[in-house]
Design goal:
Blueprint: E1 7-10, H1 15-23, E2 34-37, H2 42-50, E3 60-63, E4 66-69, H3 71-80, H4 86-95, H5 98-118
Parallel strand pairs: 1-2
Antiparallel strand pairs: 1-3, 3-4
Helix pairs in contact: 3-4, 3-5
């Protein structure tokens, strides 16, 4: 990926992350955003890890040269959501609030980590 390309880096082994990305509909005004499974892009994941982002603890949105991680990522995605479909309307209603995103994200992360453990999935190194 080039530094000027927009992408969302998520864990494809996580059923929650994969379904979230699959159901997300983003506004065309945001421009193209590549949905990248971090397990298929280890070099990119390692680059962000070196920048201090723990991708085992949150998705990362690289948009217009800026990085949004964890609760900030979910918040930014909600702002970019089309609002089409029930999932996108509920997602936008909840996570378009930065405060709610920050408050709810730790619970989402805990559920994700527990699910990965129960499924026997390994974290990224």
């Amino acid at each position: 990926m080039q530094s000027d390309e927009n992408y969302l880096l998520y864990d494809g082994d996580c059923p929650f992350c994969s379904n979230y990305v699959r159901m997300m509909r983003l506004r065309k005004a945001a421009g193209p955003i590549a949905m990248l499974n971090m397990r298929d892009h280890p070099d990119l994941a390692a680059r962000h890890k070196a920048q201090g982002y723990d991708l085992n603890q949150g998705m990362l949105l690289h948009l217009d040269g800026r990085d949004y991680w964890g609760a900030d990522c979910i918040h930014r995605l909600a702002l970019l959501s089309t609002g089409n479909g029930l999932f996108n309307r509920v997602n936008a209603a909840i996570f378009s609030s930065a405060c709610l995103s920050e408050a709810l994200y730790p619970f989402m992360r805990t559920g994700r980590n527990l699910t990965l453990t129960l499924l026997g999935k390994k974290k990224m190194p």
